[in-house]
Write a structure and sequence with these properties.
The protein is of the alpha/beta class and 341 residues long. The chain folds into 2 domains: 156 residues, 3-Layer(aba) Sandwich (Leucine Aminopeptidase, subunit E, domain 1); 169 residues, no CATH class. 47% of the residues lie in helices and 10% in strands. The chain has a 6-stranded mixed beta sheet, with helices on both faces. Helix 4 links the parallel strand 5 and strand 6. Helix 5 packs across helix 13 and helix 11 crosses helix 12. The N and C termini lie close together (9 Å).
Length: 341
């Protein structure tokens, strides 16, 4: 980890490996393929490509990157979309898996992908992004690498189809751009004040309905989260034990680096940003009550006055714990990604 989205021309991205949506034969194709050859140096790159020969759909092979700001170009041949009944999805999944595996074998620390096959090959973008995020997420759960999805312009993509619109609708329906001082007096009319007002509102609800949230917890986890004497860091350590997780499963699932996670668990007084706290809540697959309890350990709360918070709330309610997919949706809504430290 982490997974990041880059708004750029893929030929200008600095990464150890850049993935090219290659022609199956040793010749220059169209679209991304043509752009990569031009930026790398057509004659030099084509000469190396000819040494490889034909590449079967779903397979990948590497050459030097020449004039590109990368070490390698990984050439992979995506499927031409026919009707979805000719193993197109399986071939596309193989493109991502083979490219990632080859980058790992080459000891790459970073790799940049375009959306394979969604240009002249006509693969539907909504299905393509689901396949890409699934393969990337599975890979990153087991491996250390920065994976970049490179898109030239957000407006050119509707990456997550109906789901994107569902999340946006949820945000729009629940967003309250700040409670009035008349309703919640005593706090400043800014984001911090909104969080504090929301926290007080939740505490008032719990006082009125003392058993409202307790039933949502399993007994051991409830004890961990309700213990007011333990810090955020101690809570994380106990959650790891309760959920029988490896440290790597947590920091990969939260889209944060191993180094950053080490800082968190080695510092009893660590105070996370909301971004990090929310990312960790998703990594632990917490429900909404559990997530709010974890955030309160850091003096935070999911607020109705924050579009980012509402998106995270939607992910938790709908058990959308694939943070790669979540970050694509956040990006489409113009919001900051989860994790990435």
């Amino acid at each position: 980890m982490p997974f990041i989205i880059i708004r750029n021309d893929i030929t200008k991205v600095e990464a150890d490996a850049v993935v090219n949506t290659a022609n199956p034969h040793a010749r220059i194709g169209a679209g991304t393929d043509a752009a990569i050859y031009q930026a790398a140096g057509e004659q030099a790159l084509l000469a190396e490509r000819k040494k490889i020969g034909d590449i079967a759909p779903g397979k990948a092979a590497a050459t030097a990157a020449f004039g590109l700001p990368a070490k390698y170009v990984i050439h992979t041949v995506g499927p031409v979309w026919i009707d979805g009944k000719h193993a197109e999805a399986e071939v596309l999944r193989s493109c991502y898996a083979e490219s990632l595996g080859l980058a790992k074998a080459l000891r790459c620390e970073s790799i940049a992908f375009p959306l394979i096959s969604t240009g002249t090959y006509g693969f539907p973008k909504d299905l393509a992004i689901k396949i890409a995020t699934s393969v990337i997420f599975d890979f990153l759960m087991e491996n250390e690498m920065t994976v970049c999805l490179v898109v030239f312009d957000r407006r050119a993509y509707d990456l997550s189809g109906k789901l994107f619109h569902d999340v946006r609708a949820y945000i729009d329906e629940n967003y309250v751009a700040g409670r009035s001082e008349a309703e919640y007096p005593g706090f400043p009319d800014d984001e911090q004040g909104a969080e504090r007002r929301e926290m007080r509102r939740r505490r008032q609800l719990r006082a009125e309905e003392p058993f409202a949230t307790a039933s949502a917890f399993q007994a051991p986890l409830e004890a961990v989260l309700s213990d007011t004497d333990i810090t955020f860091q101690e809570c994380l350590l106990k959650l790891i034990v309760e959920r029988d997780l490896k440290n790597s499963e947590v920091y990969h699932g939260a889209n944060i680096s191993k180094q950053h996670f080490s800082k968190i668990i080695s510092n009893r007084e660590y105070h996370p940003t909301k971004n990090t706290a929310c990312a960790l809540a998703l990594a632990f697959h917490l429900n909404l009550n559990e997530a709010n309890a974890l955030l309160e350990k850091a003096g935070l709360v999911l607020s109705k006055s924050s579009r980012f918070d509402l998106a995270v709330e939607y992910f938790i309610i709908h058990k959308m714990y694939n943070i790669v997919s979540d970050n694509i949706i956040l990006d489409e809504n113009g919001l900051d990604p989860l994790g990435t430290q």
